[in-house]
Amino acid sequence: MSLKIYVDRLSQPSRAILIFCKLNGIEFEEVNIDLSKGQHRTPEYQEVNIMKQVPAIVHDTFKLFESHAILRYLASAFPETADHWYPKDLQKRANVECVLDWHHSNLRRGSAGYVFNTILAPAFGLPLNPQAAAEGKKLLSASLATIDTYWLQKDGSFLLGNSQPSLADLSLVCEIMQLEFLDEKDRVGLLSPHKNVLKWIDDVKSATAPYFDDIHATLFKVSEIFQKQRSAGASS
Amino acid sequence: MSLKIYVDRLSQPSRAILIFCKLNGIEFEEVNIDLSKGQHRTPEYQEVNIMKQVPAIVHDTFKLFESHAILRYLASAFPETADHWYPKDLQKRANVECVLDWHHSNLRRGSAGYVFNTILAPAFGLPLNPQAAAEGKKLLSASLATIDTYWLQKDGSFLLGNSQPSLADLSLVCEIMQLEFLDEKDRVGLLSPHKNVLKWIDDVKSATAPYFDDIHATLFKVSEIFQKQRSAGASS
Q1: Is the N or C terminus of chain A more exposed, i.e. has fewer CB atoms within 10 Å?
Q2: Rounded to a whole number, what is the distance in angstroms from the first to the last CA of chain A?
Q3: Residue B91 C-alpha, separation from nearest chain A C-alpha, in angstroms
Q4: Structural domains for chain B
């Protein structure tokens, strides 16, 4: 059965799925859907995902979107996936599900709201929205504090006190990497109060090397362009 | 093993869990946490759920929050649960997961944002926020349209073209029931353009009778009080 994964590597859930597949030796064809060029709005792509979003997959003839649903499906459909990603034990799995669900209305909403309305909106032909940015930043900060003081409080390097990463670690760290788009001072200001979060990001990077940095290369490149534009603006 | 379910019946995900347990013959003790009295902020309740939210469960010694995580866990931990709620077939399950995940950033965010900022905020000591209400209403309308024209487009009475309801039907319809708090004209205005949604709500109610109406009785009572207050305000 063929597996096609439709992604833009600048999208955080797209990266989580690519890293997951690489780590677990799942063979796939990566199809790039460039969001900044509007490729998610073409009639061809709407045949794949009517919601006009990435990521999406087509496994043989089965179409699926929503990144957490995709991660759960792949972890279950490919038996070579190591158990720690999506444990078969009901209570361990339920804890992972709890973090994945919490993510939507907290870290994801805060981070995406802040980064989009501070940096990315103009690339999509939309104006920056300072009020939405401020609300996003507040929720983002609160979410980072919750990760720092609750999800990472038990023994073990990963969320929930686990000794190996789960789907939740991958999804959440890929989201936080989106902060690379921000001005460095702003990013450091957001992350530096949260020492457990900083260590955990490094632990996830190490546990998913070399794929983590490979898949984030495009993001690092674009982030560098943003930084240069800022420096040019500041010195002109 | 004992199962305690901590709920406020005015909370939509609380109701979904209660109805699910009743329908599947799962025995539990219901513990009422009155949000309007701040009972979710007591130190005792924080021992149950540090996030200070309902619903939450304690199954013997296992604590869990986030309603979709709870529904998945209960459907898996209680083998008497009928398969249609959370299918074992991987692709059928993935489709249910897709709706459950989609819900967070769409129907849930729109509905909760609109209802809270139009009606409920003062009961929690907060001011109404017209701009947040307007954003919520826009997302709520778009979400109802997506349910009407996409999730309910296939044969079968329920989401995804299924002939029996899944966890997704229960979660989403309980969310929509929150619109009972609105002024009737407003609620009808929101729902009436979506004929498939209206039929589906009735189908979910029928499929989950008599528990659906039983568990929603508190909501109907409070909604009636709101309507009377509005009438009194209009005629004074």
Answers
A1: C
A2: 55
A3: 7
A4: 3-81 (3.40.30.10), 85-235 (1.20.1050.10)
- The whole-angstrom separation of Cα B209 and Cα A184 is 56
Q: Tell me which of A78, A97, A175 to substitute to probe the interface with B (most B C-beta atoms closer than 10 Å).
A: A97
- Provide the chain A residues 15-54 that lie in CB contact (below 8 A) with chain B: 50-51
Give the nearest partner residue to A69 out of B76, B94, B105, using CB atoms: B94
B-chain residues near A97 (CB < 8 A): 66, 68-69, 72-73
Looking at per-residue confidence, does B1 or A79 come out higher?
A79
pLDDT tens digits for B112-155? 999 999 999 988 889 999 999 999 999 999 999 999 999 998 78
Q: Does A207 touch chain B (CB under 8 A)?
A: no
Strand partners, B3: B59
Task: Decide if B91 touches A, using CB distance below 8 A.
Answer: yes
Q: What is the ipTM of this complex?
A: 0.96
pLDDT band at A70 (very low <50, low <70, confident <90, very high): very high
